[in-house]
C-alpha cells in the first residue's frame, strides 16, 4: 500500500498525481446547489457531473509554474493543449509556463471522465474558465492586499499581477503561497475574461503541449508503460463472440524461450458488456515470446450461439427486414397515404458494413494486482469504467483500484470499451501480483473489436406533379450497441436513431421513420460518429438520387429539401436525445446547415465544368451539435479506379477554441471518411472476422488521399453561445459526398460500402 | 550472442535469436519510441534506421544485427533538433502522435537519399507508414518545408 504513490511514477520522467503540497487553494467551498427537480443536461447529466473547483485541477508553485490536471483522455484531439489554452487565458498565465498533468481515474473527485461523444470541450469550456477565473481572482486579491490597494485597480498581465496606476508588478510565483491562503471565490462572483482579451483561445497554430515528446519518441502512451519485473502477455481469445475454450494443450508453448505461464481466462456470459472475452493468456519475459508462445498453443473452441454468423447472409436478411414495416420512430403526417398518392416514387437501399476502429496503438494495458491494491495503467477513454469493474472483480474498495490513463495512440471509440484493462488485471492477479503488460496484436484488434454496427437503410420518397418531395419513408435496421449490455435487444436505441435517422431537417410534410428488428451476433460498440455514419450515408446519397431522378442540381435540391431557415425543436423531429444536451439550447438550426453547404460549394467552385470522368459530390450532416458539409471531387478511370482529387469540408461548431486542432480533426475525418467509403469492411464467416491485418483491412495511406484537403470554418457565434462537438461530426458527410461524386463522374451509383471492393466489375 | 549499437551505445543479446528488433528495443532495452502497429511490415510504426536505411524493426531478427548500427527516433538527434523534428512541431503534424516516430524516421531516410522529393517521391517513400488519425496532408507539408530549408 505504501507503494501506491510511487508505484504510479511509471515513466522515466516524474508524473504528478493530484494537486499536492503548495497547491493554490486551501479554503473549502461548497458545491453550487443543484436543483434536484430539474432535468439535467450536458455535463451535469453525466455520471459524476462537472467539477470546477480550482483546488482539484490547478497548482501554482513559487517558481511560477502552473500545473493543470487534465482529466480527459488525450487521443489526438488535442484536449491537453486546448485545456491549457483556456485556463491560461482566464488566469492570465503564459502558456509555456503551464504544465499539463494527466489525472488518474476518479470521478468522485474530478467529475465525469468519459472521453467520448465529442463533448470534452463542449462540456468543459465554461468550467475551465471558471477554474482559471477563480484562481486569477485569488492572485489579484493577494497582490492588492500586499500593495494595500483596491482589487479593482489590479489586473493580470503575462504571468504577473500589475497595479494599473503605478505599474507595480508581482509575478505569479511570488504570489503563490499568499493566494493559496485566500478563500476560493464563489462561482456567481466570478467575472470571466472578455473574449477580446484572449491571447490563446481562438488563435491558430498553438504548439501542442506534447510536441517535443512526440517528435523525439519520449511521449509515454499506454503501451509504453514500464514497471520493475514486468511480464508481457497476449491472449488467445475465442474467435466467435460468446465462444469458449473446449480444451487446450500448452506443451509446445511452454517450450518457447521466455514463456512464463499459460493462464486460462473464463469466458463471460452474454451479454458481456466490457468483460474480457475469455480464452488463454500467455505471459512471457517479452512480447515477442508471448506472441510466439501463443502461435504454438493447441486450442479447440466451443463456438457458442454465434458460430454461424455470416455477415453476407445477415445483410440479405436485413434487406428483407427493411422491405416490411417496423417500429415507428418518427411519424409526421401520413407517409403511407402520401406515398400512395404520389405520382412518382423512388426507393433505394443502402448498406454499411462492420468496421473496426483500428487505432494505431492497439488496445493495451498494464496492471499490478496485489491482495489489497489494484493498479492499472492503460490507454482508456473511460478510466472509471475500469475502476468499477475491477473493484467488483477483486472485491476491493474503489479507492484501492487506481487507474492511470496515459496518452492514447488513437481511440476512435475502441478504447471506450476497456476489456483489455480487465485482461491485464486478471493476468497480473494470476501471476501473484507481478506486473503484466497486455497488448492486442493487430490481428487481435481487428478480430476482437467492439465493431461498428452494420446498417441496412431503405429509403423511399414520393414526388408530387411539380417534382417536389412530399413523402419520405426511411427504414433503418441494424444491431444496437445496447446489445452488449442487455439480452434480447432487437432495436436501435433512441440515441442511435437520433444520429441522423429521425433528425432529418427536411421540409417534407409526411415523414415516417421505422426501425425493423435486428439482433446482434457479434460485439457491437462505439466507432467515431457512431450511427451517424450509416444514416448520413443513406440519407445523403438518397437525396442525390432524388435530385438525379428530378433532373436537378444536387446542391440546389438539397437546399430546397432543407427549406427555409428556421430553428427546429428536436422533439418535433422525434429526436429524444439531442446528444444529451438541453434541446432548448440546441435546436436544429437549418440556416447553419445551409451555410456550411453553401460554403463548401463555393470553395469547391461547385458547378464549374469538369473534364470527362471527374465529378463533384456533396453531402451535409448535423451531428454532435455541429454542422458539416463536404464536397468531394473524384476522377474515375476506365478500369474503375477511383482517385479522390480534392475535398472541401465546411464546418460550424460554434466558436473555435483551438482552431488548429479543429482543423486537424477535420482533416483526419476526411481521411477516415475516404477509408470508410472506399476500403474498410470487417466481414464474418462462421462467426469469425475474416480480416486480420492492414493487408485485408485497408485504411487510407498517404498516396490514397488528396493533396488538397481543404477545411473551411463557418463561425456562427461567439464564445457565449453553446458549443458543438468537433472530434466526430466531420466524418459522416464524407462517404456520401464521395459516393455522390462517383455517380457524377461515372454514372455509377454505389449503395453499399466499401466502394472500392465493389467498383471494378460494376464500372467496366 | 549478437552485438550491435543502438543510438551509439553497444548492446548485446543472447536470447531467442528469432526475437525481433522491435520487441528487443521496446521490452528489453526500454526504448519505447519505436512503436508496434501491425507486426507484419504493413504500417511503418516500427521504423528505425539500420546502417542508415529505414527498416521495419518488426521484421528484423536481432540475430541479423551483428556489427550493425541501429538508430531509433530517440537517437535521431540529441535534442529534437533534426530539421524534420523541428518542422513537425512547427506544423503541429501530430494528432495522437503514435505513428509519428516511424513517419519521421521514414522521412529522414527519404531526405537523406533525396533532399528535394517530389509529391510522387513522397508518396512512394511514405505509403508504407499508416497514420490512422489522418495527418497525411501535414506530413507531406512538413517534408516539403524541411526540404525547402536545406
Ligand atoms: S509494426 Fe512493423 S510495420 Fe507495422
Ligand atoms: S497521429 Fe495518430 S496515428 Fe498518426
UniProtKB/TrEMBL annotation, chain A:
<dbReference type="InterPro" id="IPR052516">
    <property type="entry name" value="N-heterocyclic_Hydroxylase"/>
</dbReference>
<dbReference type="InterPro" id="IPR000674">
    <property type="entry name" value="Ald_Oxase/Xan_DH_a/b"/>
</dbReference>
<dbReference type="GO" id="GO:0016491">
    <property type="term" value="F:oxidoreductase activity"/>
</dbReference>
<dbReference type="InterPro" id="IPR046867">
    <property type="entry name" value="AldOxase/xan_DH_MoCoBD2"/>
</dbReference>
<dbReference type="InterPro" id="IPR037165">
    <property type="entry name" value="AldOxase/xan_DH_Mopterin-bd_sf"/>
</dbReference>
<dbReference type="InterPro" id="IPR006311">
    <property type="entry name" value="TAT_signal"/>
</dbReference>
<protein>
    <submittedName>
        <fullName>Molybdopterin-dependent oxidoreductase</fullName>
    </submittedName>
</protein>
<dbReference type="InterPro" id="IPR012368">
    <property type="entry name" value="OxRdtase_Mopterin-bd_su_IorB"/>
</dbReference>
<dbReference type="Pfam" id="PF02738">
    <property type="entry name" value="MoCoBD_1"/>
</dbReference>
<feature type="domain" description="Aldehyde oxidase/xanthine dehydrogenase a/b hammerhead">
    <location>
        <begin position="216"/>
        <end position="305"/>
    </location>
</feature>
<dbReference type="Pfam" id="PF20256">
    <property type="entry name" value="MoCoBD_2"/>
</dbReference>
<dbReference type="InterPro" id="IPR008274">
    <property type="entry name" value="AldOxase/xan_DH_MoCoBD1"/>
</dbReference>
Automatic annotation (TrEMBL), chain B:
<keyword id="KW-0001">2Fe-2S</keyword>
<keyword id="KW-0560">Oxidoreductase</keyword>
<dbReference type="Pfam" id="PF01799">
    <property type="entry name" value="Fer2_2"/>
</dbReference>
<dbReference type="GO" id="GO:0046872">
    <property type="term" value="F:metal ion binding"/>
</dbReference>
<protein>
    <submittedName>
        <fullName>2Fe-2S iron-sulfur cluster binding domain-containing protein</fullName>
    </submittedName>
</protein>
<keyword id="KW-0411">Iron-sulfur</keyword>
<keyword id="KW-0479">Metal-binding</keyword>
<dbReference type="GO" id="GO:0051537">
    <property type="term" value="F:2 iron, 2 sulfur cluster binding"/>
</dbReference>
<feature type="domain" description="2Fe-2S ferredoxin-type">
    <location>
        <begin position="1"/>
        <end position="76"/>
    </location>
</feature>
<dbReference type="InterPro" id="IPR036884">
    <property type="entry name" value="2Fe-2S-bd_dom_sf"/>
</dbReference>
<dbReference type="GO" id="GO:0016491">
    <property type="term" value="F:oxidoreductase activity"/>
</dbReference>
<keyword id="KW-0408">Iron</keyword>
<dbReference type="InterPro" id="IPR006058">
    <property type="entry name" value="2Fe2S_fd_BS"/>
</dbReference>
<dbReference type="InterPro" id="IPR001041">
    <property type="entry name" value="2Fe-2S_ferredoxin-type"/>
</dbReference>
<dbReference type="InterPro" id="IPR012675">
    <property type="entry name" value="Beta-grasp_dom_sf"/>
</dbReference>
<dbReference type="InterPro" id="IPR051452">
    <property type="entry name" value="Diverse_Oxidoreductases"/>
</dbReference>
<dbReference type="InterPro" id="IPR002888">
    <property type="entry name" value="2Fe-2S-bd"/>
</dbReference>
<dbReference type="InterPro" id="IPR036010">
    <property type="entry name" value="2Fe-2S_ferredoxin-like_sf"/>
</dbReference>
<dbReference type="Pfam" id="PF00111">
    <property type="entry name" value="Fer2"/>
</dbReference>
Amino acid at each position: 500500500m505504501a507503494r501506491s504513490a510511487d508505484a504510479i511514477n511509471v515513466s522515466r520522467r516524474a508524473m504528478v498525481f493530484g494537486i499536492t503540497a503548495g497547491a493554490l487553494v486551501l479554503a473549502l467551498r461548497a458545491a453550487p446547489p443543484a436543483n434536484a427537480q430539474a432535468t439535467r443536461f450536458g455535463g451535469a447529466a453525466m455520471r459524476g457531473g462537472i467539477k470546477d473547483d480550482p483546488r482539484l485541477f490547478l497548482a501554482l508553485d513559487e517558481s511560477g509554474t502552473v500545473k493543470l490536471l487534465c482529466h480527459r483522455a488525450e487521443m489526438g484531439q488535442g484536449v491537453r493543449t486546448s485545456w491549457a489554452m483556456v485556463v491560461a487565458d482566464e488566469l492570465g498565465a503564459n502558456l509555456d509556463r503551464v504544465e499539463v498533468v494527466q489525472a488518474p481515474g476518479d470521478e468522485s473527485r474530478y467529475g465525469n471522465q468519459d472521453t467520448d461523444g465529442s463533448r470534452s470541450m463542449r462540456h468543459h469550456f465554461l468550467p475551465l474558465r471558471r477554474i482559471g477565473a477563480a484562481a486569477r481572482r485569488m492572485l489579484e486579491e493577494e497582490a492588492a492586499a500586499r500593495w494595500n490597494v483596491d482589487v479593482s485597480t489590479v489586473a493580470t498581465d503575462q504571468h504577473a499581477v500589475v497595479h494599473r496606476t503605478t505599474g507595480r508588478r508581482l509575478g505569479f510565483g511570488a504570489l503563490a503561497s499568499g493566494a493559496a491562503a485566500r478563500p476560493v471565490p464563489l462561482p456567481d462572483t466570478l467575472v470571466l475574461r472578455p473574449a477580446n482579451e484572449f491571447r490563446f483561445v481562438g488563435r491558430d497554430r498553438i504548439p501542442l503541449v506534447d510536441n517535443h515528446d512526440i517528435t523525439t519518441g519520449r511521449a509515454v502512451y499506454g503501451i509504453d508503460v514500464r514497471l520493475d519485473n514486468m511480464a508481457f502477455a497476449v491472449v488467445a481469445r475465442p474467435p466467435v463472440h460468446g465462444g469458449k475454450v473446449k480444451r487446450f494443450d500448452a506443451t509446445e508453448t511452454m517450450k518457447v524461450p521466455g514463456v512464463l505461464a499459460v493462464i486460462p481466462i473464463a469466458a463471460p456470459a452474454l451479454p458481456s458488456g466490457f468483460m474480457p472475452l475469455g480464452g488463454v493468456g500467455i505471459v512471457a519475459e517479452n512480447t515477442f515470446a508471448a506472441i510466439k508462445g501463443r502461435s504454438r498453443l493447441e486450442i479447440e473452441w466451443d463456438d457458442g450461439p454465434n458460430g454461424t454468423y455470416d455477415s453476407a447472409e445477415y445483410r440479405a436478411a436485413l434487406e428483407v427486414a427493411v422491405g416490411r414495416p417496423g417500429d415507428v420512430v418518427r411519424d409526421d403526417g401520413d407517409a403511407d397515404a402520401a406515398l400512395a398518392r404520389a405520382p412518382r416514387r423512388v426507393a433505394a437501399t443502402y448498406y454499411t458494413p462492420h468496421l473496426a476502429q483500428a487505432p494505431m496503438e492497439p488496445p493495451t494495458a498494464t496492471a499490478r494486482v496485489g491482495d489489497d491494491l489494484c493498479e492499472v495503467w492503460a490507454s482508456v477513454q473511460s478510466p472509471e469504467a475500469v475502476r468499477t469493474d475491477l473493484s467488483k472483480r477483486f472485491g476491493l474498495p474503489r479507492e484501492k483500484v487506481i487507474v492511470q490513463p496515459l496518452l492514447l495512440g488513437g481511440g476512435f471509440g475502441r478504447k471506450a470499451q476497456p476489456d483489455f484493462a480487465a485482461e491485464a488485471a486478471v493476468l497480473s492477479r494470476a501471476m501473484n501480483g507481478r506486473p503484466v503488460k497486455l497488448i492486442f496484436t493487430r490481428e487481435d484488434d481487428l478480430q476482437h473489436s467492439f465493431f461498428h454496427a452494420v446498417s441496412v437503410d431503405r429509403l423511399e420518397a414520393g414526388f408530387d406533379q411539380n417534382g417536389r418531395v412530399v413523402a419520405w419513408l426511411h427504414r433503418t435496421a441494424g444491431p444496437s450497441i445496447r446489445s452488449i449490455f442487455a439480452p434480447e435487444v432487437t432495436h436501435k436505441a433512441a440515441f442511435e436513431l437520433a444520429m441522423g435517422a429521425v433528425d432529418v431537417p427536411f421540409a417534407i410534410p409526411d415523414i415516417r421513420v421505422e426501425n425493423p428488428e435486428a439482433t446482434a451476433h457479434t460485439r457491437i460498440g462505439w466507432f467515431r460518429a457512431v450511427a451517424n455514419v450509416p444514416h448520413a450515408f443513406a440519407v445523403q446519397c438518397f437525396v442525390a438520387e432524388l435530385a438525379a431522378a428530378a433532373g436537378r442540381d444536387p446542391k440546389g435540391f438539397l437546399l430546397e429539401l432543407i427549406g427555409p431557415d428556421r430553428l427546429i425543436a428536436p422533439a418535433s423531429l422525434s429526436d429524444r436525445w439531442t446528444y444529451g444536451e438541453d434541446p432548448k439550447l440546441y435546436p436544429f438550426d437549418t440556416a447553419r446547415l445551409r451555410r456550411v453547404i453553401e460554403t463548401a460549394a463555393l470553395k469547391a467552385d461547385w458547378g464549374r465544368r469538369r473534364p470527362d470522368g471527374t465529378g463533384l459530390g456533396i453531402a451535409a450532416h448535423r451531428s454532435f451539435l455541429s454542422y458539416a458539409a463536404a464536397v468531394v471531387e473524384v476522377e474515375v478511370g476506365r478500369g474503375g479506379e477511383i482517385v479522390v482529387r480534392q475535398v472541401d469540408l465546411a464546418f460550424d461548431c460554434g466558436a473555435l477554441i483551438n482552431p488548429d486542432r479543429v482543423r486537424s480533426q477535420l482533416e483526419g475525418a476526411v481521411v477516415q471518411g475516404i477509408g470508410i467509403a472506399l476500403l474498410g469492411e470487417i466481414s464474418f464467416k462462421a462467426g469469425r472476422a475474416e480480416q486480420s491485418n492492414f493487408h485485408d483491412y485497408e485504411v487510407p495511406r498517404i498516396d490514397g488521399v488528396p493533396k488538397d484537403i481543404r477545411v473551411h470554418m463557418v463561425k456562427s457565434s461567439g464564445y457565449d453561445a453553446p458549443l458543438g462537438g468537433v472530434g466526430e461530426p466531420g466524418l459522416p458527410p464524407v462517404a456520401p459526398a464521395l459516393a455522390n461524386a462517383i455517380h457524377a463522374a461515372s454514372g455509377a451509383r454505389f449503395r453499399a460500402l466499401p466502394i472500392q471492393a465493389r467498383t471494378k466489375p460494376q464500372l467496366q | 550472442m549478437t552485438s550491435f549499437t543502438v543510438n551509439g551505445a553497444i548492446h548485446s543479446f543472447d536470447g531467442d535469436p528469432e526475437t525481433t528488433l522491435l520487441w528487443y528495443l521496446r521490452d528489453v532495452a526500454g526504448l519505447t519510441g519505436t512503436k508496434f502497429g501491425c507486426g507484419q511490415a504493413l504500417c511503418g510504426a516500427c521504423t528505425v534506421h539500420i546502417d542508415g536505411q529505414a527498416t521495419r524493426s518488426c521484421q528484423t531478427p536481432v540475430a541479423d544485427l551483428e556489427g550493425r548500427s541501429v538508430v531509433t527516433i530517440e537517437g535521431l538527434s540529441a535534442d529534437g533538433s533534426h530539421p524534420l523534428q523541428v518542422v513537425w512541431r512547427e506544423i503541429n503534424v501530430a494528432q495522437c502522435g503514435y505513428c509519428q516516430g516511424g513517419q519521421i524516421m521514414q522521412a529522414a531516410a527519404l531526405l537523406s537519399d533525396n533532399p528535394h522529393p517530389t509529391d510522387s517521391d513522397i508518396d512512394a517513400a511514405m505509403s508504407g507508414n499508416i497514420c490512422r488519425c489522418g495527418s497525411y496532408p501535414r506530413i507531406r507539408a512538413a517534408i516539403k518545408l524541411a526540404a525547402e530549408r536545406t
